[in-house]
Design goal:
The structure is a single chain. The chain is an all-alpha fold. The protein folds into 2 domains: 16-61 and 175-504, no CATH class; 62-146. Helices cover 76% and strands 2% of the residues. The protein contains 16 helices and 2 strands. The chain has helices at residues 2-101, 106-141, 143-148, 152-157, 178-202, 211-237, 239-260, 268-291, 305-308, 311-326, 333-350, 353-356, 374-399, 414-430, 439-467, 482-504, and strands spanning 403-405, 409-413. A hairpin with a 3-residue loop joins strand 1 and strand 2 (409-413). Helix 13 packs antiparallel against helix 14. The longest helix is centred in the first third of the chain and has 100 residues, at 2-101. Residues 1-24, 37-49, 89-115 and 138-170 have low confidence and may be disordered.
Length: 505
């Protein structure tokens, strides 16, 4: 008996040792990806400068060609109008000869004066009409005038010189934007310092520090390092890489949600459709929008927003209950169909609006085109949503007195919510330079993200309490599930996307 227990203890220790080595290897891989990003960012910026210089030269050559064509057209029309004017003066000289021959007759002289006055009036009218016709011809034939007569909103949509015309999936996308690189570098430095601090505190005795608090702090830092590394890896692959990564995250989060929820045999087909059909299809539509697919009939870009914005709330929410009903199992039908639909709505539909930010054509509130990066806007959303959770917990830990819902979450207080939201607004206002928002607009939107993050944390905590679990899963030993890390982002992403789309695109 003692021998068997000893073997079991050895197996358990070996398993934990293997898990620790696996976690260490994952963190080392994340650090390697971040270091690769730091090394490659100058090369990407240099390539972006070469593309910008080449675009400037091409735009200058095109503008010179258009100007030369316009000048040649105007000179040709002016020569034509001068020829018409010389012909009119010759005809007027011929008409004056009969009047000179009849100068002796007073009556005929008076009549000739009247006729001469009428003729001058007619000539002046004809000259005015010819001048107007020549102006209209110049306006119609001149390319520069046709460009200038466009509406102001259309001129703002035209790419300025020095900007690369990219497909719909990129507005200075990726790591070739200086402001995005600066933000990523600052976050990377903070994470490295936090990791070193956590490693130092771990080596202290339990009498000096709170071991449980330090353990939670290190777990959070490790999770943020992994998230940052995955995001940077996706940015290195381009917009499609980010969309694919978020697709896998949604798939795993939905799997965690479905595993926790009770299901019956009649739900298997509906679960298969939710995981294998609707989840990839949602991100496929976002990827097609990033690709800039055109209609083969009209040649215009297809607006896939009209499809992926209603695909799950309309088509999936109608088909899944129908498919469960077709299976013939009516026990707890409403509960089963609602939990699958809710899982799709939160884990897939809401989260998919985060990579959909990469497809937006942004502008400032003044109407000018946004010269920043949509990747920076995505990183802004993720950073603010995670910081809001930290700041609310910190304020609640030090100043919290009134718990919002003791049966749901004992760590969320009204003081923590208010203090964390205001602090998040200050952080957002300090990061306005990476977004199309102004100082005050960025502060307000950051507070909206913080509020929606709190709602998401409370809703997902209520589900865990209902099911009697502490975490949704543990992808890496010692960490909570993916859904525990993205619950704030799932509730903040769709609201942030639609606010940005309505006011800044």
């Amino acid at each position: 008996m003692n021998l068997s227990l000893g073997r079991a203890g050895v197996k358990g220790a070996s398993f934990f040792k293997l898990a620790f080595l696996l976690e260490t290897g994952v963190l080392q891989l994340c650090f390697a990806i971040l270091v690769l990003y730091v090394l490659l960012s100058p090369v990407l910026l240099a390539g972006q400068e070469e593309i910008t210089l080449e675009t400037d030269s091409n735009a200058t050559a095109v503008s010179k060609d258009v100007t030369n064509e316009a000048e040649e057209t105007i000179s040709a029309i002016a020569a034509d109008s001068s020829e018409r004017g010389s012909g009119d003066s010759t005809s007027e000289a011929d008409s004056l000869e009969p009047n000179a021959s009849s100068a002796e007759d007073p009556d005929s002289k008076a009549e000739s004066k009247l006729d001469e006055g009428d003729g001058q009036k007619g000539d002046s009218v004809s000259n005015v009409s010819r001048e107007e016709e020549s102006k209209n011809e110049v306006a119609e034939s001149s390319p520069s005038s046709s460009v200038n007569t466009q509406p102001q909103a259309t001129q703002q949509m035209l790419p300025a010189s020095g900007q690369v015309t990219l497909p719909r999936g990129g507005q200075n996308f990726g790591l070739n934007n200086l402001r995005t690189n600066i933000l990523l570098g600052v976050v990377l430095a903070i994470l490295v310092v936090s990791y070193v601090v956590g490693f130092y505190l771990k080596r202290q005795s339990s009498e000096k520090v709170n071991a449980a608090l330090i353990r939670r702090f290190r777990q959070r830092v490790n999770a943020w390092i992994m998230m940052c590394a995955i995001l940077v890896f996706g940015l290195l692959l381009g917009s499609f890489g980010v969309i694919v990564i978020f697709g896998f995250v949604s798939f795993w989060a939905l799997r965690e949600f479905i595993t926790m929820a009770p299901t019956r045999r009649g739900d298997h087909r509906a679960l298969f459709l939710a995981l294998i059909v609707f989840t990839p299809l949602q991100y496929l539509l976002i990827g097609l929008e990033a690709w800039g697919l055109k209609s083969w009939t009209t040649g215009r870009l297809i607006d896939f927003y009209g499809l992926y914005s209603i695909m799950i709330p309309v088509y999936a929410s109608l088909y899944i209950p129908a498919r469960i009903a077709i299976s013939g199992d009516h026990k707890r039908f409403l509960e089963r169909s609602a939990q699958i639909t809710f899982g799709l709505l939160i884990c897939v539909y809401s989260l998919s609006y985060a990579p959909a930010l990469l497809n937006m054509k942004l502008r400032f509130s003044s109407g000018q085109a946004f010269d920043g990066s949509t990747a920076g806007l995505l990183f802004y959303l993720i950073l603010i949503s995670q910081l809001s959770d930290i700041l609310q917990w910190t304020w609640g830990h030090f100043a919290g007195k009134r718990v919002i819902a003791p049966e749901i979450s004992t760590s969320r207080t009204w003081e923590g919510f208010l203090g964390g939201t205001l602090s998040t607004g200050l952080v957002g206002s300090a990061l306005f330079w990476v977004t199309p928002f102004t100082f005050w607009e960025s502060a307000c939107i950051a507070m909206v993200i913080s509020a929606m993050g709190m709602f998401g944390g409370m809703a997902m905590s209520a589900i865990k309490r209902d099911r009697g679990v502490n975490d949704y899963g543990s992808l890496v030993l010692g960490h909570a599930g993916i859904l525990d890390r993205i619950d704030t982002l799932c509730f903040a992403a769709p609201v942030f996307y639609h606010l940005t789309r309505f006011f800044y695109s």
